[in-house]
Structures are given as structure tokens and as C-alpha cells.
Design goal:
alpha/beta, Rossmann fold, binds adenosine-5'-triphosphate, binds magnesium ion
Length: 199
Amino acid sequence: MPDKETLHRQRMARKKAVVDAAIARATDKRGIVVIHTGNGKGKSTAAFGTLARTLGYGLQAAVVQFVKSRRDTGEEAFFARQTGVQWEVVGSGFTWETQNREADTATARHAWTVAQGFLRDPSLHLVVLDELTYLLKDGYLDEQQVCADLLARPPMQHVIITGRAAPQCLIDLADTVSEIRDVKHAFRAGVAAQAGIDL
Ligand code: ATP
Ligand code: MG
């Protein structure tokens, strides 16, 4: 019977062989679609973390915020000081604030033309479509159109889509999908949204 140390070494060697083989198989390099969905906190934050990575390599990126109408967030202030990122806030709050479906549909259409411009620009390495899912869920944008535009983007361009309840067609099209689960949120204990943490 080999000793504990030998068994551990053998187990690690087998694990390394499996991981090395998987790494050797993953040789493709192409633009991917990443979705951050689910009810937990962190979907937009994770997208901005990836944006920081992209800019760190001196690459170009763009962000479209579909639902937020405020321009005084910490993320926008921070990224405005960086080079290489275009930032568009195209939301108007949508129904729960405006209560006007016609105006919201027009806002959504305009918002998507802004996104389309970015999705056709091969100089952009990353496009973040923040809170896009809500416009699809509530029928302000046509799923087929959105999917077609995503598929027609430049081959090396990455896209991150955030928002709860991502529709199945987007999940089918995406390469990486993470669902962030809500285990606990300070808001339910009466804590307000705070600068630097939530905005
Ligand atoms: P964040 O921007 O903090 O990463 P998110 O993108 O995952 O959050 P959104 O629905 O866009 O989620 O959240 C916008 C705001 O709502 C943020 O202030 C966030 O803290 C808050 N929030 C997110 N998840 C929850 C939740 N489960 N309960 C209450 N508030 C939440
Ligand atoms: Mg968000």
C-alpha cells in the first residue's frame, strides 16, 4: 500500500493530465458572447471588471446602458478617465418610471441603433450591453433583430450582456452564460443603494 504522500502525488498527476489535455484542446480564438443573468447582485459589476481587463491591454471598448438614465455613477466617472472606452446611457427608466409604452418603444429603438453602431465596428474589442435583457423581456426590442445583429458582428469582437431573465434565444446564441443567484441582499434589510457599492 503506497503512503499518503505517494497517493496524493499520483492523484495530482492524473488531474494534471486531464486539465492539460483540456487546455490543449481549447485552441480557438474568436469573439464570444457572455451573459450575466440571474437575480443576484454582481451582473453589471462583473461586466465592468471585464471592461477594466480589456482597457488594461490598451484595447478599445464600448458600453451601452439600456435602463439606467443617471450619468453620475461611479463606473461612468471612473471609465471616463480612461482612454479607449465609449460610454452611452440610452435608457429612460422605462415603464415603471415613464408609464408610456410608445415613448419607451421609441427610446428602445434608438438605444438599439446606438448598439448596432458598436456591433459593426471592428475596432471595438468588447461591447457591453448593460441591462439589455429587460428590453427584450418586455417586448421593446425584437429578439430576432437583436440576435441577427449579434451574430453579424466582427468575428473577434466580444459582447457582454447583463440583466435578469435572459431570454432563451440569447442563451442559445451565447458562448458563456453565468447565472448569479441571490442568496442575500442588504436592500431587504433596509440598506439603501450606496455610492461605490451599488452605483
Ligand atoms: P450591480 O450593478 O450591483 O452589479 P446587478 O447588475 O447584478 O447589480 P441590477 O438588477 O442591475 O443587478 O441591480 C441594480 C441595482 O439593484 C444595484 O444597486 C444592486 O445593488 C441592486 N440589486 C441587485 N440585485 C439585487 C437584489 N437581489 N435585491 C435587491 N437589490 C438588488
Ligand atoms: Mg445591472
